[in-house]
Specification:
The chain is of the alpha/beta class and 537 residues long. The protein folds into 2 domains: 250 residues, Purple Acid Phosphatase, chain A, domain 2 (4-Layer Sandwich), CATH 3.60.21; 194 residues, HIT family, subunit A (2-Layer Sandwich), CATH 3.30.428.10. Helix content is 21%, strand content 19%. Helix 3 runs parallel beside helix 4. The longest helix has 20 residues. It is elongated and about 95 Å long. One of its GO terms (cellular component) is post-mRNA release spliceosomal complex. InterPro entries: Cwf19-like, Cwf19-like_C_dom-1, Cwf19-like_C_dom-2, HIT-like_sf. Belongs to the CWF19 family.
């Protein structure tokens, strides 16, 4: 309802400049009408606070609107906060307390955490610990039908908040801020999260709080860091916003996703979180509504990792469609560069990539003419799985993990590109982050899909798509709806974030002479031989 709309102001480090902040608030109210409250994050008091503060504490002066502040971030200002559990400091100025939830009469929920992250235990009085964060999380997550809080106030930035996002300027979000605050934000899912302390203004693009295709849509979070009051660089330190409490909103309106929404910057934390979750709320349904339950043996599904089928007889394999013209990858075709072939199975073969990212960059290809993984018969799919398992074992023996991708767009024969990456170079999370970050830069929505699902569950035959798969089974998927950069997969892997060989992003720049290619293929064949099931079957 209209009456539930609440107009708030949030500000960064006041540092004792009370006249400056309250003067600015009065000016804004004179121009734009009354606001309900002012929320202050960062250092409210500073080294020169005493003279101005005395006038407010004595009642000689009064804050123009109800003002709520966080506690001390250093030893010098601890004495301004007499009661750790929160108290009125002066008329219209309230210290919220060390941690907790403030609920206004409108139903608006504001979660808050005072201080900075403790670097050792026991920490100083102006710090918070993992225990403080855990207790605040538990107090909220245990409430029935918890969906998130309206506002979260912390003084430090959350670590890694800039992942998948617009630049934070000179602030390095991978080093700045607190991991505990990131964990808190990931769990509490605030609609607005305000922080300060870095003397910088940063309004991050909104990020989503659910995994697309795996969880029901949820509201987005807007993170806003505010500069210090009265700074000479004219950086923004006061932020005005209107908000309707989550509890009063139409659920469909609440979960609307803005066009510029990004992936969740704390997705690593979400994955590492314990699997036990709070009970599902009435509006939510379990993730299996989106994908059939892969634990139930329904239909004739292929066995994973090429396990035996038992007594069941495979159906007669359908003949693959014939190519409409010359095909570079059908094994029977005269166009195939057979000197690059390194292994031939019953339904598939392996070949070194022409102009590969590395000498052991290989392709898994069906012998017959199939356009994409989605079109494969169960027999061919089963052999693709066997090749994946063999390549995983082979590359792991060499201290590498593979990254596989397929681009079913402007291609007529399925090519599964398999590129090894040294295990000590990056983690599987680093690889996923690199793909998601570069996809976002190019307005490509690359979504994580469940590890044990097949691409056929999210893409119909004939659908253009791009997907990435790690040798752990983790997958990222993009449904291509318009144009798509043909070299996208190579560009990400060649980028500084991964192999750091940007000059190899285009295969045409990497093509070798035929004798060199043949020598590389012979070397690969020799090394792969102990892992090659096609030589034993």
């Amino acid at each position: 309802s209209y009456r539930a709309v609440s107009r708030r102001l949030a500000c960064g480090d006041v540092e004792g400049r009370l006249e400056a902040i309250f003067g600015r608030v009065r000016a804004i109210q004179a121009k734009s009408g009354r606001f309900d409250m002012l929320l202050c994050v960062g250092n409210f008091f500073g080294s020169t606070s005493e003279a101005e503060w005395t006038e407010y504490r004595s009642g000689a002066k009064k804050a123009p609107i109800p003002t709520f502040v966080l506690g001390a971030n250093n030893q010098d200002t601890l004495s301004y906060f007499p009661d750790v559990s929160g108290c009125e400091l002066a008329e219209n100025i309230t210290y919220l307390g060390r941690r907790g939830v403030y609920s206004g009469c409108s139903g608006l929920q504001i979660a808050y955490l005072s201080g900075t992250e403790a670097q050792q235990q026991p920490g100083p009085a102006h710090s918070f610990s993992a225990k403080d964060v855990a207790e605040l999380k538990t107090s909220l997550l245990s409430t029935p039908n918890f969906r998130g809080v309206d506002i979260l106030l912390t003084s430090p930035w959350p670590r890694d908040v800039g992942t998948y996002a617009n630049s934070a300027g000179e602030i390095d979000t991978k080093k700045c801020g607190s991991k505990l605050v990131s964990d808190l934000a990931a769990s509490l899912k605030p609609r607005y999260h305000f922080a300060a302390l870095e003397k910088a203004y940063y309004e991050r693009l909104p990020y989503r709080n659910h995994m697309v295709l795996q969880e029901t849509p949820q509201h987005v979070t807007r993170f806003i860091a505010l500069a210090d009051v009265g700074n000479t660089s004219k950086k923004k330190y006061l932020y005005a916003f209107s908000i309707v409490p989550m509890s009063s909103m139409d659920p469909a309106e609440l979960v609307k996703q803005p066009q510029d929404v990004t992936e969740n910057p704390y997705r690593k934390l979400r994955k590492e979180a314990p699997k036990s979750k709070a009970p599902l709320s009435a509006e939510e349904e379990p993730a299996c509504q989106f994908f059939f339950d892969l634990n139930k043996h329904q239909g004739k599904k292929r066995p994973s990792e090429g396990k035996e089928r038992g007594d069941s007889q495979p159906k007669q394999a359908k003949k693959p469609p014939q190519p409409t013209g010359p095909c570079w990858f059908c094994l029977a075709s005269p166009e195939v560069e057979k000197h690059l072939v390194v292994s031939i199975g019953t339904h598939c073969y392996l070949a070194l990539a022409k102009g590969g990212l590395s000498p052991d960059h290989v392709l898994i290809l069906p012998i017959g003419h199939y356009q994409s993984v989605v079109d494969l018969s169960s027999e061919v799919l089963e052999e693709v799985t066997k090749y994946k398992a063999a390549l995983k074992e082979f590359f792991r023996s060499k201290g590498k993990r593979y990254v596989l991708f397929e681009r079913n767009y402007r291609s007529q024969h399925l090519q599964l590109q398999v590129i090894p990456v040294p295990l000590d170079l990056c983690t599987s999370e680093d690889i996923k982050e690199a793909f998601i970050a570069q996809a976002q830069e190019q307005q490509i929505e690359l979504l994580e899909i469940p590890e044990h699902s097949d691409i056929a569950q999210v893409a119909q035959p004939g659908t253009p798509y791009f997907y990435v798969e790690l040798d752990t089974g983790e997958k990222l998927f993009h449904r291509i709806r318009g144009r798509f950069p043909l070299q996208f997969g190579r560009c990400v892997l060649a980028s500084e974030a991964l192999l750091a060989q940007p000059e190899r992003a285009d295969w045409r720049q990497c093509a070798a002479q035929r004798p060199e290619e043949a020598a590389q293929a012979r070397a690969f064949r020799r090394e792969f031989e102990p892992f090659d099931f096609s030589l034993r079957d």
